[in-house]
Amino acid sequence: MSSKVLDGPMFLELLRGGVFYLSANCQEVNDLNVFPIPDGDTGENMMRTINGGLSYAEKCEDDSLSSVAQAAAKGMILNARGNSGVILSQLAAGLADGFEDCDEADPEKIAFALRSGVERAYGAVMNPTEGTMLTVARESSEYVNKRIGDDSTVDSVIEDCLQEMDRSLQRTPDLLDVLKEAGVIDSGGAGLVYIVQGAYSVLRGETLSSHIGATEVKQVDITKFNSDSIMRFGYCTEFLLQLQNSKIYIGDFSVDKFKEELSGFGNSIVCFQMDTIVKVHIHTMNPGDVLNHCQKYGEFLTMKIENMTLQHNSSYHESDVEEEKSDPSEYASVIVATGYGVCEVMRSLGADVIIEGGQGNNPSAETFLDAFRAANAKTVFVFPNNSNIIMTAKQAADLCEDCDVRVIESRDIGQCYAAMTMTNYDLTDADAVEENFKEAMEGVKTATVTRSIRDANINDINISKGDFIGFSGKNMLSSEKNICDTTASLLHKIHADENDILILIYGNTVEDATRKSIVAQTRFVYPFAEIFEIDGGNIDADIIIIAE
Amino acid sequence: MGMVKILTDSCGDLGKETREIYDIDYCRMNTQYDGKETPASLDWEYYTPKSLYDIMRDGNRVFTTMVPTEEFVNVFGKYAGEGYDIIYIGCSLKQSGSVNVAKTVAKDVMKIYPDVKIHCIDSKHASTGEGMIAIRAAEYRDQGLDADTIAMKVEEDLKYCHEFCTVHTLDCLKRAGRVKASSAFFGNLLGVKPIIIADAEGDQTAIKKVKGRKAALDEIVDLLAEAVIDSEDQTLFISHADCLDEAEYVKKQMEEKIPCKEIRIEYMGPIIGSSIGPSGMAVFGWGKEITFRSGDKYEQ
What we know:
- The complex is a heterodimer of chains A (about 550) and B (about 300).
- Chain A has about 550 residues and is of the alpha+beta class.
- Chain A has helices at about 10-25, 25-30, 40-60, 65-80, 80-100, 105-125, 135-145, 155-175, 175-180, 185-205, 255-260, 285-295, 310-325, 340-350, 365-375, 390-400, 415-420, 430-440, 485-495, 510-525, and strands spanning about 5, 105, 235-245, 265-275, 275-285, 300-305, 330-335, 355, 375-385, 405, 445-450, 455-460, 460-465, 470, 475-480, 500-505, 530-535, 545.
- In chain B, helix 3 (about 70-80) packs across helix 4 (about 100-110) and helix 8 crosses helix 9 (about 245-255).
- Chain B is of the alpha/beta class and about 300 residues long.
């Protein structure tokens, strides 16, 4: 159909399409989250807002455009959730203002109402930010108003609006740095596009369920998951399930109960029903179990299963490459560390480049030089974390001509922890940053528990081969037959009672039961300390203790 | 001259006793968990602090809503109907849109009661900092000032209200989108505690890191001691998220370091608690004008 006027009943249909389409894509909008964890709620907020508008509009007894639009706006304003919901409701309210006293609207009037919606939404926000759904709404409204002419129809207006919205949405990261950094487009803007897409598909007479098919599988580099990779994030599993009379009595099917059953298989579950079709989205470690379960109710129409660990690894790599190409940053850090878990922690503390190395595995100056280059900064701070490696680091620093390299003479991982946790790149200059690192290092204690490989007598401590020993720096402090006693005695010797923070880094030689009893005894003896446990991996020791 | 009602909201973190002393009421926001919406009572009428924080300790997120339109309609309508002028001191617009909603409702209510004046003020603060500004308004009211004058004076005064807050991690605040800070404040901080202030724009901004909880508690007291002016004439406030013992410790430190009339301890209510997570601790007082904005370099 190609209509010249928009009336109340048609507006309601378009709104219904918008709600439907947004709900089908709700999770995707949620996932457009600047914070890289699955807890975004923009889609949910917008959905609940517009759904409130729909239920008011459906109850509206007068079918003039003005009344239906007003009812929808009122419902949205009352049900607005979150900033995106509030802005959406204001857009709707402004749209309704624009249709005031209209039984129906011609394309010119629709364009006017769109502009009115944008004005109201901008007015409602104290400091409008560009690169958000406000921009998407504004630019599309401007485009529609520019294109309006004698041969415009309702369809052409909505089509223009949708096309420009889509373009505008893709531009949002250029306007808003947080989006660019996170590699996402604006979630509120995306929600808006889905709503208009829904309206447009109604205009084109499409059946709505054809739109809720599985989304395209993203392109990923499959070499990023190999025979040694660990499955950490499970599978994003999405499908349309056609309920089957041959399997169940469909009238008794409860989507809430169904959803509850699915919760045993994974999380991030989104699930809703349209007639006899159920859309399911779930993150699960075992997609097969989910499919087997669901097949008891019907058969699958479409399906998509993605390895989220692979997606994660791929995007991880891409951002690394991008960083190398970019302009050098002001500051960066290069850290020498041993053990998978320790490296992870250092990365999370802000280490830019990590050189695998340590006792018995000292990196070369060339390795350092490569690391300095990879760090790609004007000033690079290096943490050797071993007295045997400091010299090499300094030499490499002398050789390096690309940047200003400063060696922070950290002798162990504890000093590195103490400095890195207090990183402050906002200080006035590189000297101040360096000074801040050095100050932060002072006073931290690092001690190590490991097994003696021979008989010895050091510091009046008798040690037999195979005993556990505890030492700090070059100071032998304790030796006992078992690891728990050695750790307890070592903590006592380093006066751990003076410290607020105790970090226990376990090597992969230490079994879970031992870890549990060590942390329990430490909690008991030092009730006021905050205790952190780190699974260090292959750290060339049984336990490293950091006390601060 | 008309009577004036002072209102704050669920973010104001003033306990029942304090609200009674200063005759202040508040508008309820809501918490959302597991699909259920519950009014955010500053007196914990619907659930205990522990049950809220246990949900968060288990790694789940409790969502919060701004003050619903309906709540403003009811509360404003009630007091306007009784002939009160109304001053609503709301949570910083950087944290909640409630003040904007309130302004819209106020317009409608004033149409029904043309003689009533309603002022909706963005306190640019949250928690008991917002509450303390409401108390300031109540004190003006008790001096006999009219609503317009109170609103004007409070708008000026709120620039001088200081908050220093510490939390175990910024993760809750970051997830809720309620804090500004550089990346150095996030991730695995291993015992490092961020210090947060309410800046000149009303943003909650992380300004520095301190090692260890005790050092952080001492630091917020020291920072307050530096910031306050004429502390002898002031009632200072502490608000905490379910850690009364530590709040008592902070109070003792303040008594030693800052001469003042009184120090009151308040519970962080469900809204602030849901954003900040268990063990949030903040101290408040009046002092020099706040000029710091997020992104500035914080000078010690």
